């Protein structure tokens, strides 16, 4: 018995080849990390930040490195990474933020006084955070200062606060596990200045007085000022209050 020869239709070859390419594309391993080509932030527990780097860089609080593997280079940044203008601004306003640039291949671990750490993702928006609460940020994020007025005076943190802006990730610290509270136009939020850590979104803030006659004679709650947030955004609050100028009356 003679076997009938099998002929391959040439018209099928291009589609068959294309299917192979598609299958190869589908089987390609997915990219890791939150954004390709940028340092990857992840938490080790709640008090240590691990940053995986492949030649990229991050800004971190000066002296916050606790360990690393691979090859890392550390460089102190003047003015919190804002150059000479930022350095002069911070000295004039009393806003203290000493940062270092960390660049290399491997994983670097950051922590500061066993503080709790929260990761914040930015997508072209701006984060307002007390300088003492900023642990680490992508090198591509811009840092600056903004005027807080009486709110800063009441909280005891100064008249200016730090801003982080752009697309990337930042890590902020709190004294105890932070609570992230949502603010909407229908539901404004009042926060004790000593418990405030950071906020992001389209929010307006005003300092409101809680002083009443009962407060003055020692029968009030002792909360002389609060920060009132209105708009749409997120506010990060810590369960421990820092010392404030207007805390108790």
Automatic annotation (TrEMBL):
Recorded coiled-coil stretches: none
Alphabetical list of Pfam families matching this protein: AIM24 (PF01987)
Domain of life: Bacteria
InterPro entries assigned: AIM24, AIM24_sf, Trp_RNA-bd_attenuator-like_dom
Protein name as it appears in the record: AIM24 family protein
Organism this protein belongs to: Streptomyces lavendofoliae
């Amino acid at each position: 018995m003679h076997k009938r020869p099998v002929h391959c239709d040439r018209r099928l070859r291009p589609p068959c080849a294309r299917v192979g390419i598609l299958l190869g594309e589908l089987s390609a391993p997915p990219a890791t990390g939150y954004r390709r080509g940028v340092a990857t932030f992840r938490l080790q527990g709640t008090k240590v930040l691990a940053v995986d780097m492949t030649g990229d860089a991050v800004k971190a609080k000066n002296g916050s490195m606790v360990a690393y593997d691979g090859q890392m280079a550390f460089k102190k940044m003047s003015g919190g990474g804002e150059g000479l203008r930022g350095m002069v601004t911070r000295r004039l306003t009393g806003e203290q933020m000493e940062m270092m640039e960390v660049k290399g291949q491997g994983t670097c671990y950051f922590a500061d006084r066993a503080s709790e750490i929260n990761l914040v993702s930015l997508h072209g928006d701006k984060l307002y955070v007390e300088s003492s609460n900023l642990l680490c940020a992508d090198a591509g994020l811009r840092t600056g200062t903004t005027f807080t007025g009486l709110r800063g005076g009441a909280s005891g943190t100064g008249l200016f606060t730090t801003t982080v802006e752009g697309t990337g990730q930042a890590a902020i610290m709190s004294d105890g596990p932070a609570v992230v509270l949502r603010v909407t136009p229908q539901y404004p939020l009042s926060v004790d200045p000593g418990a405030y850590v950071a906020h992001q979104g389209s929010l307006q803030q005003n300092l409101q007085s809680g002083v009443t006659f009962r407060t003055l004679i020692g029968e009030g709650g002792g909360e002389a000022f609060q920060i009132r947030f209105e708009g749409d955004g997120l506010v990060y609050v810590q369960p421990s209050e820092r010392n404030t100028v207007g805390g108790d009356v």
